[in-house]
Design a protein that fits this description.
The chain is of the alpha/beta class. Helix content is 37%, strand content 15%. It binds flavin-adenine dinucleotide (FAD) and iron/sulfur cluster.
C-alpha cells in the first residue's frame, strides 16, 4: 500500500503523463510504466472516522494507468469478468480522456460501476487474468481495471452523465421483485426497461441489501448506493419497504391476490452461521450481520442520532477470515475498541478476504491471530463475555475447497481476555420463503434451485444472487439478476403476443 499523499501521487502521475508525450507506445514502454497506487486516507486518521478509505484516482493517474493496458488482441481480462465488460474498450476511451464513451461501454454490461469499481474482487477476477500482470510475473501489477472503472463511474455521477436507462412504452405486464440487493436492482431495471410494471418488496426499512446494511460506509459510501436506488424510482419502479414476503404476503398471494405475471426472488443469504460452541449466548457475542447492521443501517456510530445503541467494546475478537470479518474488525476499531484481533483457523494465504482489505486492516492496527479457533466463550457472573478459549491448529492436506485443512493441535488451548466476540464465519439463506412455499425447490444448503436462466421449480418464478449461489459477490449477483430478467422479459413477450 502506498504511503505517498494524494498530491504526491498526482504530481508523480503528471510527470509520467508528460514524458509519454501523446506518442504511440510500444509494448515494452507500456510494461515499464509504474502501477498507479490508490490514494487513501492516512491509517491513523481513518480509524477515527467513517469516511471512505480509498480516495480514488486523480485524472492524471487514470490516464497513466490506462496507458499500461496493452490493448490485447485476445483480452483475457474479459474472460475473468463475470459480466464480460469490454475492458480494453473502456480503458482505451479513458486513456483518450473520453470518459462519457468509456462509461457508455461499461454500462452496456454493468449497471452499477461505481459500486463494482469499489467492492469487486478484481484481483481474483479480471485482473487475475490480465496479460500485464502475467508478463511482469506479479498479479499485483496487473492493470488496475477496477480503479479505472471507479474513476469513470464517479466522473459520470459527478458530471450528471449517469442517467437511468430509457423505458419502453407500458406493456401492462406486472413483475414482483423480492429483495433489493444487487441481484434485484439489476433485474428490476432490466425488466422495467422493457416497459413492464415492476414492484420491489424489501423486508428492511431501507433498500439496497448488503450494500446498505453490510458493507461499511468507509468502503462503500451509502450515497452511491442510494443514487442507484433513486435511478430505479426515476425509471418508475415502485419500492415497498418493511414488506416481508412469506409474512406480509406469501409468494402465492403475489400471483393470486395481487395479479403479478412473474416473480424474481433476490432475497440473499442473510441468516448468520454460529460456531455452536459453549458460551455463544453470553452478552457481548454478536453475529457479524447484527453488528454491521446496527453500525451501518441503524447508524450506531452516530451516537447522538443513532436508532440503536452499540455495545461499548474495549477488547474484541472477530472470528473468520473473509471480507465480513475484515469489515467487522475495522468497524469495531472505528467504534472505539482499543484492541481488535482477527482469529482465523488457517493462514493468511487461505483467507477468502480481498488482499486489499487485509492490508487495510493491518494498516489500521488490527491484530491477526492465525491458525487458531475458539472452542468456548467464557462469561463473568453478570453473564457478559470475559474471555475466549482458543485451540491452535496446523495445516494438513487440502480439503474439498482446495484449501489446506486446519488440523487441531492437541493440548494447545489458551485463553484470550476479551469483552466482545463477533462471529463472521458465513451466512445461510433465510428459510422463510421456502417454508411458506414448499413446492419451491431448494438444495441441501437451503439455496433456491434455479436453471441456467434463473428459472425455479415454480412456474413464472425466477431467482438469482446469493439465494441461489450462497454467499457470493456483488457482480455475480448482478449477473444473475440480468440473466433472470432476460428470461422474464422473454416470457412476458411470449404471453403478450
Ligand atoms: P442481498 O444483497 O443480500 O440483498 C437481499 C435483500 O433481500 C436484503 O435487503 C434483504 O433484506 C431482502 N430480503 C430477504 N428476505 C426477504 C423477504 N422474505 N422479503 C423481502 N425482502 C427480503 N461482495 C463483493 O463483491 N465485494 C465485497 O467487498 C463484499 N463485501 C461484503 C461484506 C459484507 C459485510 C457482506 C455481508 C457481504 C459482502 N459481499 C461482498 C457479498 C455481497 O454483498 C453479496 O454477495 C451481494 O450483496 C448479494 O446480493 P443479493 O442481491 O443476492 O442479496
Ligand atoms: Fe489490457 Fe490486461 Fe485486458 Fe490486456 S488483459 S486488454 S493488458 S486489461
Amino acid at each position: 500500500m502506498s504511503h505517498l499523499s494524494p498530491t504526491e501521487l498526482k504530481t508523480h502521475a503528471s510527470e509520467i503523463w508528460k514524458s509519454l508525450d501523446g506518442r504511440e507506445l510500444r509494448m515494452k514502454e507500456r510494461l515499464g510504466i509504474p502501477l498507479q497506487e490508490m490514494p487513501s486516507q492516512d491509517p491513523l486518521v481513518r480509524c477515527t472516522n467513517m469516511n471512505e478509505v480509498a480516495l480514488g484516482y486523480s485524472e492524471e493517474q487514470v490516464r497513466v494507468e490506462s496507458a499500461r493496458c496493452l490493448q490485447c488482441k485476445n483480452p483475457t481480462c474479459i474472460d475473468g469478468c463475470p459480466v464480460r465488460i469490454d475492458i480494453p474498450g473502456f480503458i482505451q476511451a479513458a486513456f483518450d480522456g473520453d470518459y462519457a464513451k468509456s462509461l457508455g461501454i461499461i454500462k452496456e454490461s454493468s449497471l452499477l460501476p461505481a459500486i463494482c469499481g469499489r467492492v469487486c474482487p478484481q484481483e481474483s477476477q479480471c485482473q487475475a487474468t490480465c496479460t500485464v500482470g502475467r508478463s511482469l510475473k506479479d498479479v499485483g501489477k496487473a492493470v488496475s481495471i477496477g480503479r479505472i472503472e471507479r474513476y469513470v463511474a464517479d466522473w459520470g455521477r459527478e458530471n450528471g452523465k449517469s442517467r437511468p436507462p430509457a423505458v419502453k412504452p407500458e406493456t401492462g405486464k406486472r413483475v414482483a421483485v423480492i429483495g433489493s440487493g444487487p441481484a434485484s436492482i439489476t433485474a428490476a431495471a432490466d425488466i422495467r426497461k422493457e416497459g413492464h410494471t415492476v414492484t420491489v418488496f424489501e423486508a428492511f426499512h431501507k433498500p439496497g441489501g448488503v450494500m446498505i446494511y453490510g458493507i461499511p460506509e468507509f468502503r462503500l459510501p451509502k450515497k452511491i448506493v442510494q443514487e442507484e436506488i433513486d435511478a430505479l424510482t426515476t425509471m418508475g419502479v415502485e419500492l415497498r419497504t418493511n414488506f416481508l414476503i412469506g409474512r406480509t404476503r406469501t409468494l402465492h398471494e403475489l400471483f393470486e391476490k395481487d395479479g403479478y405475471d412473474a416473480v424474481f426472488i433476490g432475497s440473499g443469504a442473510g441468516l448468520p452461521k454460529f460456531m455452536n460452541v459453549p458460551g455463544e449466548n453470553f452478552v457481548g457475542v454478536f453475529s457479524a450481520n447484527e453488528y454491521l447492521t446496527r453500525a451501518n443501517l441503524m447508524k450506531a456510530y452516530d451516537s447522538e442520532h443513532a436508532a440503536t445503541p452499540i455495545y461499548p467494546s474495549r477488547r474484541v475478537v472477530v472470528v473468520g477470515g473473509g471480507n465480513v470479518a475484515m469489515d467487522s474488525a475495522r468497524m469495531a476499531k472505528r467504534l472505539g475498541a482499543d484492541e481488535v484481533t482477527i482469529v482465523y483457523r488457517r493462514t493468511e494465504v487461505e483467507m477468502p478476504a480481498r488482499v486489499e482489505e487485509v492490508a487495510h486492516a493491518k494498516e489500521e492496527g488490527i491484530n491477526f491471530f492465525l491458525l487458531a479457533n475458539p472452542v468456548e466463550i467464557l462469561g463473568n457472573d453478570k453473564g457478559r463475555v470475559r474471555a475466549v478459549r482458543v485451540l491452535r491448529y496446523s495445516l494438513g492436506e487440502p480439503d474439498d475447497s482446495g484449501r489446506r485443512r486446519p488440523v487441531p493441535i492437541e493440548g494447545s488451548e489458551m485463553e484470550m481476555e476479551v469483552d466482545t466476540v463477533i462471529v463472521a464465519i458465513g451466512n445461510e439463506s433465510n428459510p422463510l420463503i421456502h417454508r411458506t412455499t414448499p413446492e419451491l425447490a431448494t438444495d441441501s444448503h437451503g439455496h433456491i434451485v434455479a436453471d441456467e436462466e434463473g428459472k425455479t421449480s415454480m412456474d413464472r418464478v425466477y431467482a438469482g444472487g446469493d439465494i441461489v449461489l450462497g454467499s457470493a459477490t456483488v457482480i455475480l449477483a448482478m449477473g444473475e439478476g440480468r440473466k433472470a430478467a432476460a428470461a422474464i422479459n422473454r416470457l412476458l413477450d411470449i404471453t403478450q403476443a
